[in-house]
């Protein structure tokens, strides 16, 4: 099956097959990858994790689940510069290292299989988890509890003291939003490592999952520029210009468009 179509089909299921969708994203970058093999590994891991969980109500098992995963070696990838394997779910399963979002997706899959309530939180710069209704968030890398003061500190470390915590930072992430964020992460990682064709696959997926923003179109336009595709670059720059609210960015986009070759026209 075409990996992109298989990924999108996972979003149509009830319940959504979120982790499998993430594996199909990885399959776009490795044609030999068989998601079923890694889903079987997750089932084995689920049994291993379950044995180590305390005898508590399922509503209290989210943090022990995350701590158990950490004890089994699933931790944040600290390699610098970070490589794409930190966001490719098959590699995360095998290496037991990954970005917070990748570890969160694994935790959500295990929690679902064990009937433990857990949801993703689209916190900027660092993906988090939450038990629905709880007064705190959870770090997917080890299970540390984060209260509002901790979230403000984390936000400050990521973006500086000028950025203030708001309710929008604590919203529950939908499956589509998580896959789009995973795709953005991969786009950035592949771009950083000069793999433009792989990054283009991720950039296309970001926009297909939608809704895309000006930065998403600009990122794909820059990849088309590096791949010497001026007409495709123009298409994305025009979309970025339509979506941008920043007057300085709009000026720069207009200047960049003016330096491109004119649109090609077909004669019939």
TrEMBL record:
Residues 38-183 form the Protein SirB1 N-terminal domain. InterPro entries: SirB1_N. Pfam families: TPR_9, Transglut_core2. Belongs to the UPF0162 family. This is Tetratricopeptide repeat protein.
């Amino acid at each position: 099956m075409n990996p992109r179509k298989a990924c999108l089909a996972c979003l149509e299921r009830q319940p959504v097959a979120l982790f499998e969708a993430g594996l199909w994203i990885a399959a776009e970058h490795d044609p030999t990858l068989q998601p079923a093999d890694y889903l079987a590994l997750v089932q084995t891991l689920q049994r291993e994790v379950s044995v180590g969980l305390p005898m508590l109500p399922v509503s209290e098992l989210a943090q022990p689940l995350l701590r158990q995963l950490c004890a089994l070696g699933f931790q944040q990838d600290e390699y610098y510069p970070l490589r794409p394997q930190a966001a490719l779910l098959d590699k995360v399963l095998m290496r037991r290292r990954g970005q917070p979002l990748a570890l969160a997706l694994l935790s959500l899959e295990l929690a679902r299989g064990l009937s433990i309530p857990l949801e993703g939180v689209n916190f900027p710069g660092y993906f988090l988890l939450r038990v629905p209704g709880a007064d705190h968030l959870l770090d997917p890398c080890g299970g540390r509890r984060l209260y509002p003061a901790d979230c403000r500190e984390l936000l400050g470390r990521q973006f500086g003291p000028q950025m203030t915590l708001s309710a929008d930072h604590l919203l529950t992430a939908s499956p589509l939003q998580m896959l789009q964020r995973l795709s953005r992460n991969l786009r950035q990682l592949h771009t950083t490592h000069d793999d433009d064709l792989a990054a283009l696959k991720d950039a296309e997926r970001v926009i297909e999952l939608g809704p895309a923003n000006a930065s998403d179109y600009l990122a794909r336009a820059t990849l088309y520029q590096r791949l010497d595709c001026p007409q495709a670059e123009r298409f994305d720059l025009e979309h970025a210009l339509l979506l941008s609210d920043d007057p300085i960015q709009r000026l720069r986009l207009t200047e960049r468009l003016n330096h491109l070759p004119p649109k090609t026209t077909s004669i019939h």
